[in-house]
Every structure is written in C-alpha cells, then in structure tokens.
C-alpha cells in the first residue's frame, strides 16, 4: 500500500536502541494497591515484535503495569508503543514526550487499528492490523531511513515466526508468566468484538503450524500455561493435532473457548487429556433474545447448563464471562445471572458492562441510534456505562454490575457454589480456587510487588493438577541447552 514517507535518517543500520512500551491505565500503577489482573500476563505482543529485531539491536520492554517508566533517561532510536483503548491517553502522552526530544515513535495494535487517525497525531508511523507482515517491512524501511507514515497488514500468516523474545520479560513480575498464543483471531463474528475490525483486509482466523506451536510450548519452563488465543478450539483439526502433541508433556493449562466448541463431541476430552484444567467461556448473556442482536450465533439455542456440566464432568473449572446492558436486559438481569452462575457451581466469573469499542459493528449501531454518551476512552473499560442502555438507566447498570461481583464472590455464594459439587474434594477445590482468587487479592499483589510470585505459582499448579478426569503425567525440568525441557515420568 502507498502512504507518505517520513524521512528519518538513522545513524547506523545495525545496533539500534529500541524501547518498547506497554502503557498502563492509571489504576494499574497505584503505589498502594493494583488489581492483580494487571500483573497476570507479560506483554506478549511486544515480545513477539522484539523477535524481529537483530542480535546487535539493544532492546528493552517496559510494562508500565508492573514497572515505573524512567522516561527522562531514555533516548532510544525508536520507541514502539502499544495502546489499548483504556491506555490510549497515557500512550499518547508518552509518545508526545518521546517525540518532543526527537525520538521516532511507531504505534500499533488494537486501538490504533480502530482509530488510526487519532493515533497518527501522536506517532511518526502507525501500523494497523497484526504485525507479522508489516513490522518487518517497517523495520527494513526504518533502517534504510525511509519509513512510511502508515502500514496496513494484508498478508496473514504465522509460519516462520522468529522466537518470542521472552528473555526480555522479567518473569518474577507476573502471576502467569507462561502466556502463549498459537493462533490469531477467531472463526466467529460477534458484533461487540474487536476481532472483525482488527483483522479487516485479510484473514481473520489462522494458526501456527502444530510443530511450531509445540516447539513454543516446549520452550516454556514449569508446568503451567495460559493460552490467550481468542478461541483455541476454533479450528478442530489444528486443535486435535495440538492436543495429541501435548498429551504426555505434563502441562496444566487454561484457555478460552466457545459454548459450541465445549459441546462438540470428543474435542474437550482431547483437550483434558492434554492438560486443560480451566476454560474461559463466553456465555455473555442468559437472555436468549440478546444473542441474535449481537450476532452471537454460536450461542443461540445452546443449553448453557449442559456446557457447565460437561466441563465439570471432565474436571475442568469454568471461568464464565457475562456482559450486562444488552438491549434485552432489564434491572433483573444481575440477580438472575449471578443466581444462575452460583447454582451451576461455576468457579469464577468475569462480568462486563457492554462497551461499544470503536470499529465494531456494535459501535456503529449504537452511534447510528445516537446512544453513545461520550468518547472518553479511559472509561471504555467495561466498568463504566458509555452509552444509553435500553432496559434500565446507566446508574442501574453500573450499580448492578458492581453488585454482581459482590454477590458472586460473597463467601455465602462461594459456599453455595461449592456445595453443588458431589465430592468433598471437589468442594474444597472450589472454595480454594474461587476464594483464593478474589478474597486474597492484596496478597497476590504483595507477592508480585516483592517478586515472590514465582514461589506462589507451584500452588496454582498443584490446585490445577488436582483437577482433571485423568491425572496428567508428572514433568521434571531437564538442565542443559538444546535439550527438551521436560522428561516424562509415568
Ligand atoms: C492478555 C489480555 C489482557 C491482559 C494484559 C495484556 C498484556 N499484558 O499484554 C490484562 C488482563 C491486563 C488485560 C486487561 C484489559 N483488557 Co485485555 N486482553 C488481553 C488479550 C486476551 C490478549 C492480548 C494478547 O496478548 N494478545 C496476543 C498478542 C500476540 O497480540 P497483540 O498484543 O495484539 O499484539 C499483536 C498486534 O496487535 C500487533 N501490535 C501490537 N502492538 C503493536 C505495535 C506496533 C508498532 C506494531 C507494528 C504492531 C503491534 O502485533 C502483535 C503481533 O501480531 C486480548 C484479546 C486479544 N485477542 O488480543 C484482550 C483485549 C486486548 N483486552 C481488552 C480490554 C477491553 C481490556 C480491559 C479494558 C478489560 C477490563 N475490563 O479491564 C483491560 C484494560 C487493559 C489496559 N491496561 O488498558 C480488549 C481491547 C479492546 C480495545 N479495542 O482496545 C481485548 C481485545 C479483549 C476483547 N475481546 O475485547 N487484557
Ligand atoms: S467468539 Fe469471542 S473472539 Fe470470537 S468473535 Fe465472538 S467474542 Fe470475538
């Protein structure tokens, strides 16, 4: 594609100094308490892009969620910034600060793809869509001294990726250092999701080769993995081959999947045999009428209770995701949703206030109806109401959202959820997992701040290991470069 060229002579082609920044929204940087979710996962997107830099480039990754950025001392040749919608304001502040001292700024990722013109006011180059094709192209142009102002991804492939630069990540700062993605996108087209906008102009669901995915898994130390793929089970052939390769590796892992993929005969069993112990499931709403409105077709007419039962029967914990404020929702939706989730014995739940992200079908529809209240991206965080709801007031929606969290994570509700489990062992695990996650959040935060979190990870592994229809084989780390990291026993 063509776009304006930004002349920018760099002193040498090799040996660039590059700073990559994942900016944080304010609440994630509080010196007192930060919700632990901000220290869950390392900046995988930036570490992926860092893989394309040369051996003699000097690269560092700053994740503002877990470390303070020392901006004043920093004058790299290139600043790479990845804003999410909620951190866009901060991202632009940082970009402006770098540019004011002559540092070249390139921005990309989800929010930039939704609103490239907004981002372009703060960056020398903006890159839209996934980075695997455009980023190496930009780097080559930048090294030649002639980067363009815009790049848009059209060639979507995950073959021959350089290894993710995990060496640039301080694992002790994260509760889940082994996050991994082996695919991009998803085969579905939900109206509220970022996906169709981000992948516009090319394929919107594609995977690594199975061998490359297994090799990436093999490179990760310890037992626990968290797949951040939008829908790990979305391509059955790929998923089956991946799980076959993982069976016997001794891994314990968590991932996200849709209700229809859970109900698909046979696939879940293979995932469990490969170590799946907890699944994030997008139930979204218990009001069937909402699903058609959101084009969430794969959920329509599905028996949600059967989904939970099937996961529990296989020994898989459920992290259920719900969205409040869709057009069919009235003020009763909060209690009904929480009651349903507790009755099913769901271990953890994530609630969201419906948020129309720019670029999505939902945004276009709500905007056309004149219902967008403001464009203060800071508050597009799924905890604030940013549009005029149909079935209740904005106040009712926000209050109901917070009440749902309180009610679901009350000890009495946790007990009630645990009591749905037939075996005492299962009840105890429910209590430990659901209670341990929400009730001891400040302790998690402390462990992360004091970089003791790697000591806590074995607890999570033990707990996940006690789940599962069949016990996963034990894994033992093996020393020495080039060797497989795990040898299998039993
Ligand atoms: C892990 C995750 C988190 C983690 C942390 C993220 C981290 N450490 O990187 C946590 C739990 C903290 C989190 C929090 C939130 N998240 Co979140 N999260 C994700 C998730 C599941 C995976 C991100 C990931 O690692 N992807 C894999 C990597 C490889 O991809 P990537 O980061 O996008 O990078 C690629 C491209 O974007 C591109 N790229 C990125 N940056 C750049 C820069 C340049 C220069 C170039 C060339 C290319 C490029 O190239 C990379 C390689 O292809 C995504 C869903 C998704 N599929 O992306 C949601 C997602 C990003 N989150 C989202 C949201 C809404 C939130 C929250 C607001 C939710 C909430 N209620 O609190 C918060 C706020 C985050 C914040 N700080 O502002 C939305 C973002 C919507 C938007 N338009 O911005 C997503 C898309 C989920 C969704 N379906 O709605 N999140
Ligand atoms: S199933 Fe999930 S990832 Fe896929 S389009 Fe729908 S919301 Fe997005």
Automatic annotation (TrEMBL):
UniProt cross-references to SMART domains, sorted A to Z: Elp3
Cofactor(s) needed for function: [4Fe-4S] cluster
Domain Radical SAM core: 172-393
Record's keyword terms, sorted: Iron, Iron-sulfur, Metal-binding, Methyltransferase, S-adenosyl-L-methionine, Transferase
GO cellular component terms given for this protein: cytosol
The B12-binding domain, residue ranges: 15-149
Keyword Repeat: no
GO MF entries: 4 iron, 4 sulfur cluster binding; catalytic activity; cobalamin binding; metal ion binding
Protein name (record): B12-binding domain-containing radical SAM protein
Organism taxonomic ancestry: Bacteria, Bacillati, Actinomycetota, Actinomycetes, Streptosporangiales
């Amino acid at each position: 594609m063509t776009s304006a060229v930004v002349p920018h002579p760099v002193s040498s082609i090799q040996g660039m100094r590059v700073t990559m920044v994942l900016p944080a929204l304010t609440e994630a940087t509080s010196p007192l308490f930060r919700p632990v979710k901000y220290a869950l996962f390392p900046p995988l997107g930036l570490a992926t892009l860092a893989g394309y830099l040369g051996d003699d480039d000097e690269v560092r990754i700053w994740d503002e969620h877990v470390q303070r950025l020392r901006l004043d001392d920093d004058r790299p040749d290139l600043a790479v910034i990845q804003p999410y919608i909620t951190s866009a304001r901060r991202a632009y502040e940082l970009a402006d600060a770098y540019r004011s001292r002559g540092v070249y700024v390139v921005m990309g990722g989800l929010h930039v793809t939704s609103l490239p013109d907004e981002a372009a006011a703060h960056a020398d180059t903006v890159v839209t869509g996934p980075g695997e094709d455009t980023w190496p192209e930009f780097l080559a142009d930048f090294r030649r001294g002639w980067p363009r102002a815009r790049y848009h991804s059209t060639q979507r492939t995950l073959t021959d990726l350089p290894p993710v630069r995990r060496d640039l990540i301080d694992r002790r700062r994260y509760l889940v250092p082994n996050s991994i993605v082996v695919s991009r996108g998803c085969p579905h087209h939900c109206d509220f999701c970022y996906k169709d906008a981000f992948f516009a102009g090319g394929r919107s669901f594609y995977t690594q080769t199975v061998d490359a995915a297994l090799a990436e898994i093999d490179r990760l130390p310890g037992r626990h993995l968290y797949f951040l793929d939008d829908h790990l089970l979305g391509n059955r052939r790929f998923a089956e081959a991946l799980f076959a390769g993982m069976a016997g590796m001794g891994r314990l892992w968590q991932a996200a999947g849709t209700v229809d993929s859970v109900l698909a005969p046979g696939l879940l069993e293979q995932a469990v045999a490969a170590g799946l112990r907890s699944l994030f499931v997008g139930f979204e709403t218990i009001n069937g009428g909402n699903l058609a409105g959101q084009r969430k077709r794969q959920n329509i007419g599905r028996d949600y209770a059967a989904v939970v039962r099937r996961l529990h029967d296989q020994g898989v914990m459920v992290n259920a995701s719900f969205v409040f404020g869709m057009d069919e929702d009235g003020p009763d939706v909060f209690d009904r949703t929480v009651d349903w989730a507790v009755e099913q014995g769901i271990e953890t739940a994530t609630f969201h206030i419906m948020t129309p992200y720019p670029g999505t079908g939902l945004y276009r529809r709500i905007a056309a109806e004149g219902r967008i209240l403001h464009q203060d991206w800071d508050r597009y965080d799924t905890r604030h109401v940013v549009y005029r709801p149909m079935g209740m007031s904005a106040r009712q929606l926000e209050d109901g959202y917070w009440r749902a969290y309180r009610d679901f994570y009350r000890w009495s509700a946790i007990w009630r959820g645990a009591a749905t489990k037939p075996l005492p062992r299962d009840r105890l695990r429910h209590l430990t997992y659901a209670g341990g996650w929400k009730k001891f959040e400040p302790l998690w935060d402390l462990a992360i701040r004091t970089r003791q979190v790697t000591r806590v990870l074995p607890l999570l592994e033990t707990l996940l290991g006690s789940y599962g229809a069949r016990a996963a084989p034990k894994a033992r780390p093996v020393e020495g470069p080039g060797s497989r990291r795990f040898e299998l026993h039993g």
